[in-house]
Amino acid sequence: MKRKRLARLAKLLVLISVSICLMIVDEKSTSLRQFRSFVSVVALPFHMAASSPAIFFRWIGGDLYDWNKLNKEYQNLQREHLILRARIQQLETLEYENDRLRNITSSAERISYEVMFGQVVEIGVDLYENAALVNRGTVDGVYVGQTVLDSNGVVGQVRRVGALESLIMLVTDTSLGVPVKVARTGLHTILYGSGREGLVTAPFLESTVDVVEGDVFVTSGLASSYIAGYPVARVVEIKRDPNLAFLDIRAKPIADLGSLQEILLVWPGANEDISLAPLGSGK
Predict the structure, then answer these.
(1) Minimal CB count within 10 Å: which of 70, 130, 189, 273?
(2) Residue pLDDT, tens place only, 138-151
(3) Within a domain: 72
């Protein structure tokens, strides 16, 4: 056993000695370097064959990594694109909202009476198809019979008031009559809603009166039901029947009732003969 260990130790010492000698010869002589270069050229094909599996798998792994990386980047770009598109849609919506609010604000600035903005909560409340629920009530000073506008014209009139919400009957409701006059001639009449058609009618104008398509009806202020001077509807159709004493006149409301979102509640001035509930703050 000891002999084997001594033999192995002797071999190790011989190999170390040979290695040291070769290193010295390689440092001092060029002949061994030339031999080493020759051996490296001869062994090159064997080295390439031995290392090719590792190179192949490394190449495949690199391609898979690059593909996964590109795929993740593509998915991230897709998400960012969708987010940006959504933000653009929001900006477009905000721009539309700003335009509408700017219109209704400019309308409020033109009004010499006290006004309050209101938000439409619901259209078609209970059994009323031509009615709207707004987020203003008695705490805000809203009262029954109050005139309601949008940025274009008369929307309707407050019919029912709660503490925080109010019901507005639109001018297209059949139960609502609006005292008006023709802006061009001053001719007085009353407009009534036609219900589902989205129009109003003037059933009490004789066939001899001066009314043409395009004429605008404005509130007359009679009966103290509406503040005078606000546009209500524009004549779109006139039917004349020689056998009838009255005209069949249909007019389209000037207020944008189809997309009603914000409204203006109007309080008349001190010189108006309408009894008011105490006004709340915030108008």
Answers:
(1) 273
(2) 999 999 999 998 88
(3) no
